Amino acid sequence: MRIDVVVLHYNEIALKLGHRPMFVARLVDNVRAALAGLGVARVHHASGRILVELGGCDAGSVLQRLAVVPGIANCLPLERLPADLDALDSAVDEALEDWRPQGSFAVSVRRADKRFPMPSPQIAARVGARIVARTGARVDLGRPDCTVQVLVLFGEILLGFERVEGCGGLPVSTGGRLLLLLSGGIDSPVAGLRMQRRGARIEALHFHSVPYLSAASQDKARQLAGVIARGQQTVRLWMVPFGDAQAQIVAAVPRPLRVVLYRRMMMRIASGVGYKCKARALVTGESLGQVASQTLSNMVLIERASTMPVLRPLVGMDKLEISRYADREGCFEISILPDQDCCTLFVPRHPATAADEQRVLEAEALLDVAGIVEACRDSASAEIIEATWPAAGSRRAAMV
């Protein structure tokens, strides 16, 4: 069947009451940005729906981009017909030459134009009977395997046989700006994606240990930033060389405390970068009890070094849940690529799982903390990459 228009539905936005127009307007803007370059004729809001008029452009490319735009619950690709029952019958017959219900089906009719001569239940029965006569498929109005969509609007009927699920949530940029501490692992990109779907615009920061280790973790961070960019088109990725800072900590600090001091130093550096990029909070992929630095006592001690709030959207999830989410979002295969990140450099065999705060403070007193933080922050400002989607490679971003 021909696809002329895609109707977008939203769920959570509908609960925003007095603020709904702002959320809808932001979602419309985000959809326009996501579809830029495809030749879409028009994107507009009408009758509680967002309509994307294709204007002859490729429907598959449009649906691919819309499926990853936060705020969209589902997409209905539809054919535009005259407001005439005979035209509807003919379109159903034509569509059934290529489409067959997979299992049971139902027909959903929404009649925005109450002047249309036939009520919704009768339209549904008419279309359903036609499908049964042609295919022998079973009708199930309770839990159908697929649903045929009929929208009766003013002066036209829209007909569709498919629903593409969106990622839900809230539109990007309705929840402020966050700085994601992006490692090359499985957890942190999932944390960024989850916060993005709460309306946050994500910037990312990656700590690396070049030249002590290879640049493999930087390459992975660029790819993972590209996955996050699907929901907001661009992500600025701040690259922070951390090897020298680790070397100074190793030279002055007892082995069991080093991991906690690494993390506390990262929090200070990330806080400085966060203020520079106007973020409201930091985001990490930490999950309670997953590794030594993520015991509750160590997480509390590490967070005290930050001057910004720290959000941990995965804190109550286990590794299997996180991995499944990553696989569904297309970042798992990137995350498991072999690399050498800063977490593997100078890591003691037996790190403290419940570091004593007084001992940590005494160890930090042996370091030039301010000098280390300033040097890393300056390096980050000089090394900013802009990841884009659809993939156009990455490029240097302007310094802040």
Using only CA atoms, what is the Rg? 26 Å
Query: What CATH first level of the largest domain would be assigned?
Result: Alpha Beta
Number of domains: 2
Relevant CATH superfamily of the largest domain:
HUPs
Which sequence of SSEs, written as H and E, runs from N to C? Answer: EHEEHEHEHEEEEHEHEHHEHEHHHHEE
- Which parts are unreliable, with pLDDT below 50 for 5 consecutive residues or more? none
Could you outline the blueprint of secondary structure elements for this entry?
Blueprint lengths: L4 E5 L10 H15 L7 E5 L2 E5 L5 H8 L7 E9 L2 H11 L9 E7 L8 H16 L10 E8 L2 E5 L3 E2 L11 E5 L5 H10 L4 E8 L7 H14 L4 E8 L1 H10 L5 H19 L4 E3 L12 H8 L6 E2 L7 H11 L2 H4 L21 H8 L4 H14 L1 E5 L5 E3 L4
Parallel strand pairs: 5-6, 9-10, 9-12, 10-11, 12-13
Antiparallel strand pairs: 1-3, 1-4, 2-3, 4-7, 4-8, 6-7, 11-14, 14-15
Helix pairs in contact: 3-4, 5-6, 7-8, 8-9, 8-13
What keywords describe this structure?
alpha/beta, 8-stranded mixed beta sheet, 7-stranded mixed beta sheet, about 35% helix, 15 strands, Rossmann fold, 2 domains, VC0802-like, about 400 residues
In short:
With 400 residues, the chain is an alpha/beta fold. It is built from 13 helices and 15 strands.
Structural notes for this entry:
The protein is built from 13 helices and 15 strands. It has 400 residues and is an alpha/beta fold. It folds into 2 domains: 161 residues, VC0802-like, CATH 3.30.2130; 220 residues, 3-Layer(aba) Sandwich (Rossmann fold). The strands form 2 sheets. Strands 1, 2, 3, 4, 5, 6, 7 and 8 form an 8-stranded mixed sheet that branches. The protein has a 7-stranded mixed sheet with strand order 13-12-9-10-11-14-15, sandwiched between helices. Helix 3 runs parallel beside helix 4, helix 5 runs parallel beside helix 6 and helix 8 packs across helix 9. The two termini are 49 Å apart.
